[in-house]
Design brief:
The complex is a heterodimer of chains A (247) and B (634).
Chain A (H helix, E strand, L loop, with lengths): L2 E7 L8 E7 L8 H14 L22 E2 L2 E2 L21 E5 L8 E3 L2 E2 L2 H8 L21 H11 L6 H5 L6 H12 L8 H14 L10 H5 L7 H16 L1
Parallel strand pairs in A: 1-5
Antiparallel strand pairs in A: 1-2, 3-4, 3-5, 6-7
Helix pairs in contact in A: 2-6, 3-5, 5-6, 5-8, 6-8
Chain B lengths: L13 H8 L5 H4 L3 E5 L3 H13 L2 E5 L17 E2 L11 H11 L6 H21 L24 E2 L5 H19 L2 E4 L2 E9 L2 E9 L5 E5 L2 E4 L20 H8 L4 E2 L4 E7 L22 E5 L16 E2 L1 H5 L9 H13 L11 E4 L1 H7 L1 H19 L8 E10 L2 E2 L12 E3 L17 H23 L10 H20 L5 H16 L5 H21 L11 H25 L23 H4 L1 E6 L6 E6 L14
Parallel strand pairs in B: 1-2, 1-9, 2-5, 9-17
Antiparallel strand pairs in B: 3-4, 6-7, 7-8, 10-16, 10-18, 11-15, 12-13, 12-14, 14-15, 18-19
Helix pairs in contact in B: 3-6, 3-12, 4-5, 5-12, 10-11, 14-15, 14-16, 15-16
The chains are: A alpha+beta (247), B alpha+beta (634).
Chain lengths: 247, 634
């Protein structure tokens, strides 16, 4: 099939960007979206033109590197799917496809479609851990955690840190990302000693990085490739209230 | 003969002895020593965090934008540990023996025993960090089975075990970054190793965002840079996984051991077309409940559901009744290949076999299957557009892991003093075939529980002079990196590195893949030499390298893959026996199984870079504690 691509090209963080049109012929429906971009890039190199930069790595929806806004949807039209898992069979011959980077103040563009998401690392460093040094651990089965609690903590922990929640949010809020980590650790007994410090630290850092506030529209949940639930945000709010009463 | 510096004494006491013999560094002195860690996967992140906790100054480097994106994240099925929680006869001794046997008697006994020994500590450590392993209703940890074993010793977090373990190690690392004991350099790629007075003293990196070339010096360098499976272009590795850090160390004198030992994983989603950029694994854990089959008749074009039970050949269950669908990976891969060679492959390419869950869905219900494997089934459906709850999966073997890597001694130190190699990047523990769920175990064993002891011992033994940024060794290495990058720019051809990489991959898969023979390997070596010329005559990279440029990143990686590919073929040619994943067609049993030659090849082949003709060093493998035998999974 044939497609008309409109891709955001931007030389560097401080240069102005613009959309550039590319016509793609012979797109196979079995290709992944990123393989379609690979074909575009190989063609650009043949013509001596600079290829389009985009972040990607595992191409199986788990590393969280890929991050494209496709026709206004974070990771494209399919629910529960990272960009790398999107296949061209979801598009029709003759479609126009607009491809942009995540747009958020806290995720500055590095080049073309690649953005800097290190703000997430700094939020993690502000409390997204359990303070236990190597060698400290008690015997694993001495900590009992019920099956359902473990499964629920796992559902929160499944976040891949791609930033789609931020890109989809009109306020560029990182609440879904932060709440997923806070509620993963708050549901487990190992996470309890530091729960107040953790939630305060992570939320403060989130604010400092320039992410917006949460206004509960749920756009983040709809865009999340791992289908992380809004109830994590409820849990984060409860953790915040708890932390305040602890003081 | 190489000296692996294995402590003397009985195998149960070796590690305890070594830890006691080790020199210690006073806690107050540790902060005076800088340790450089390259890579932030399971091995790198866990080593960096653990060394920083001990008090060392750690500088950690990753080419990813965040440490959490390292490819350990993609490991699916689980992590082995000899906890014997299932009361089914497991022990350190049995995990040790399964690993040695699974590796077809080509691993170093003492290392493997230590790995089994510390496996139990890893689970404790990860649970303490909050890794949400699967649990029983009563709250204890649960297990599943993996190939090559008859016990249930694999701990898991859905089909995302690697993700959860890495996020655990990453959280420990970020905690140290916050403490300022670790300095993190993301989007920095190591392009060379700095050696001074014969010791590893630093690295040269390229800042991938602005192209700056910088040197970083310290007292020891730890490479935890993963495997080189992408030499085949198509593999289950992430797109950026590469050999450059290890290969640059090789070019500076570190030995590369058993480079031809490659793991071909039996259950991957088959190739769908020429645009294919990578392959996706379907976890080995699926073989707990999925049954592998092909039609009994050749050329049977009916779809799977139309083929009645009595006309199906559940070939693994037929050929290996004792282990059934859970034979080791190399055995399962070769059996699948044989079925396709016989013309009984399925799907449009006929290069696939079925992995069928119908019986399990009948037995335990779709909901239970979804709980155990939901994310894997979803991945399969996204890629193939078929629903595996309704029709069997189509799977085919693909390159997944490399057992080969930089040579290390018992202390995980290479032949270059001060250069340590951890995780998949080293060669040490899996012999000629790795058992499922053992890569995560080895990465974390090296990082949490072995390197922190051996690096301390090394530091304790040295009197290292300070090394400044204007030292001759630093200046010369930095200049060499710059010259090489300029070299790529001067070619001004018209092929992308990726196009050349695909050509290399085809040569490697055709001649150095699941089956190898003398004629093919010689042919491959000559084709690779031609490809190398083509690379240096036709490559195109952008002239501006002061910005993010994946073409420049790929150019260096592909140049190194081409050289490595040649060494792999040479190593495969020299090893005139079949063992584990290394199957020389000339050496097989009448049933088509591997035929080892213990008299001549019970050794590690460690190659030293010497220009055009690498030099072979050997480390003898002796088996004092494991009973050596022909592997038998029947």
């Amino acid at each position: 099939m044939k497609l008309k691509l409109k891709i955001w090209r931007q030389e560097g963080p401080s240069s102005p960007g613009k959309f550039v049109d590319y016509d793609m012929d012979h797109v196979s429906p079995d290709m992944s979206f990123l393989e379609m971009l690979d074909v575009l890039n190989v063609g650009l190199v043949k013509k001596g033109e600079t290829p389009v930069e985009f972040d990607h790595d595992c191409r199986e929806g788990i590393c969280g590197s890929c991050a494209l806004m496709i026709n206004g949807n974070a990771h494209g039209p399919e629910t529960g799917t990272a960009t790398c898992q999107l296949h061209m069979r979801r598009f029709k011959d003759g479609d126009s496809v607009i491809i942009e980077p995540w747009r958020a103040k806290a995720f500055p563009v590095i080049k073309d479609l690649a953005t800097d998401r290190t703000a997430f690392d700094r939020i993690m460093a502000a409390g997204g851990f359990i303070s236990t040094n190597t060698g400290n651990a008690p015997e694993a089965n001495s900590i009992l955690i019920g099956h359902d609690t473990a499964e629920s903590a796992m559902d929160s922990a499944a976040c891949i840190g791609c930033g789609a929640c931020v890109a989809a949010c009109k306020n560029s809020s990182a609440m879904l990302f932060v709440s997923a980590k806070v509620s993963h650790l708050a549901q487990l007994p190992q996470g309890h000693p530091e729960r107040a410090k953790r939630v305060r630290g992570m939320v403060t850092q989130m604010d400092n990085e320039g992410f917006g506030n949460c206004s509960n529209t749920g756009a983040c949940e709809a865009a999340c490739p791992k289908e992380i639930k809004l109830e994590n945000i409820t849990r984060l709010n409860r953790e915040m209230v708890r932390a305040v009463f602890k003081d | 003969m190489l000296d692996s510096k294995i402590p003397s004494g009985s195998i149960e006491k070796k590690w305890t002895e070594r830890k006691f013999e080790n020199k210690l560094v006073n806690p107050a002195n540790r902060r005076k020593h800088t340790i450089i860690v390259v890579g932030t996967g399971l091995a790198g992140a866990s080593a960096a965090a653990s060394l920083a906790e001990q008090g060392y100054k750690v500088k950690v480097f990753t080419y990813h934008e965040s440490p959490r994106r390292a490819h350990s994240i993609a490991a699916q099925g689980g992590i082995n540990a000899a906890k014997n929680y299932q009361n089914d006869g497991d022990s350190v001794q049995r995990l040790f023996y399964d690993t040695i046997k699974g590796g077809d008697y080509r691993a170093r006994e003492a290392n493997v025993y230590r790995l089994a020994e510390v496996s139990v500590n890893i689970i404790d450590q990860c649970v303490a960090q909050g890794v949400p392993f699967a649990r029983e209703y009563g709250g204890t940890l649960t297990n599943r089975s993996f190939g090559g074993t008859q016990v249930s010793r694999t701990f898991y977090a859905k089909g995302q075990t690697g993700q959860q373990l890495l996020l655990g190690a990453y959280s420990g690392l970020m905690r140290q970054v916050a403490e300022k004991t670790v300095e993190l350099f993301s989007r920095h790629e190591m392009l060379d190793l700095i050696i001074r007075d014969g010791k590893a003293r630093g690295i040269v990196t390229r800042n991938l965002v602005n192209g700056d070339i910088t040197s970083h010096t310290g007292d020891a360098v730890l490479l935890a840079t993963g495997g080189y499976g992408n030499v085949f272009f198509l593999s289950t590795n992430a797109k950026a996984s590469n050999t450059t850090a290890a290969w640059r160390a090789y070019k500076r004198g570190a030995y590369m051991a058993n480079p031809c030992f490659t793991q071909i994983h039996p259950t991957c989603i088959p190739v769908s077309g020429e645009h294919q950029s990578k392959l996706t694994l379907m976890s080995e854990s699926l073989r707990n409940d999925g049954r592998v089959w092909v039609p009994q008749k050749t050329g049977d074009n009916r779809n799977a559901l139309e083929i009645p039970e009595e006309e199906r050949d559940y070939f693994l269950e037929r050929m290996y009744p004792a282990f059934g669908n859970l034979v080791p990976r190399d055995v399962a891969s070769r059996a699948a290949k044989r079925m396709c060679d016989e013309g009984r492959g399925v799907g449009s390419s006929k290069l696939a076999v079925y992995l069928d869950f119908a019986e399990s869905i009948n037995r335990m219900g779709e909901a239970k299957v979804r709980e155990k494997y939901g994310n894997l089934f979803q991945m399969y459906e996204k890629i193939t557009d078929e629903n595996p709850y309704k029709v069997p999966m189509r799977i085919f073997p693909a390159v997944h892991y490399v057992m080969g890597g930089l040579w290390v001694d018992y202390d995980l130190m290479s032949n270059i003093p001060g250069l340590f190699v951890l995780g998949e990047a080293n060669f040490s523990d899996h012999g000629a075939n790795r058992l499922g769920a053992s890569a995560l175990m080895q990465g974390l064993a090296d990082g949490y529980f072995i390197a922190p002891y051996s690096v301390g011992n090394y530091i304790g033994l040295q009197k290292l002079a300070a090394i400044k940024s204007d030292d001759d060794s630093v200046k010369a290495t930095t200049q060499a990196v710059k010259d090489r990058l300029e070299g790529f720019k001067k070619i001004k051809g018209n092929q992308s590195a990726e196009t050349l990489h695909r050509k290399l991959g085809k040569i490697m898969w055709d001649h150095c893949g699941m089956a190898r023979n003398e004629k093919g390997l010689k042919e491959a070596i000559s084709q690779i030499k031609t490809l190398k010329e083509e690379f240096w005559n036709t490559l195109w990279v952008p002239q501006n390298d002061h910005c993010l440029s994946s073409e420049i990143e790929k150019a260096g990686r592909v140049a190194d893959f081409i050289e490595l590919g040649e060494l792999m073929c040479l190593d495969a040619l020299e090893r005139k026996e079949s063992c584990g994943g290394h199957f020389r067609e000339e050496m097989q049993t009448p049933e088509g199984e591997t035929l080892r030659d213990d008299a001549n090849f019970s050794h590690v082949a460690a190659w030293e870079f010497m220009g055009d003709k690498p030099k072979l060093h050997k480390e003898a493998l002796t088996f004092e504690f494991a009973h050596i035998a022909q592997r038998n999974y029947k």
